[in-house]
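Exercise: predict the fold of this chain.
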Amino acid sequence: MLAQSFAPRLKCLYMGINIASSNVALPTSRMVEYVKRLLAGNRGAGQAQEEFSQGRENRKGKLWASARLANRFAEEWYRQLLSWSYQVRGYAVLYDRHFLFDFSLDTDGGRAPLSERTHRWLLTYFYPRPDLVIYLDAPAEVLYARKHESTVEDLSCRRKSYIRLGKETANFVQIDATQPLEAVYNEAASHVARLVDKGYGTPGIPRGAD
């Protein structure tokens, strides 16, 4: 809806970790996802996910972790460069999700593999942040009733993490997503409109909103 409202001054770009949901991605990233699905089918999703997420303490596991880390960097910066290319041509860019928030939700701290901790640190201190972050907030019970994904406990934990990150993020806007759709849309659109009116969509001015 936002994309249609602000066309032709707005481009949409998926900036999350789910490659299957992305409107753009490197071929290597799609290949990695294909291999993960293939192994999950052959050896069981639980075992494959553990191997891919945490790596094994052997040579193959470490090589795979290093390759995944390099591909993550490439994928993230590819999308950021694509975003900048839109912005210098005069578009404001609306992000669906953002890597910084997706990966910062991990709470295992020092127990995470070195590659994961390195990746999170680089995202936190070097990856460009959106100029505006819009968070559609709703209680965990409401979110679970809408989509029946994950668990209420996990959704509640993620909600708290988003709100905590929001307090550390400039221009973070929290919108009550239990309102009627039209009210949620109007509130989000008003924030995007203010950003666009300030020139975030003028040729040569790189800007993005999440």
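Check your answer against the key: The chain is about 60% helix and 10% strand.
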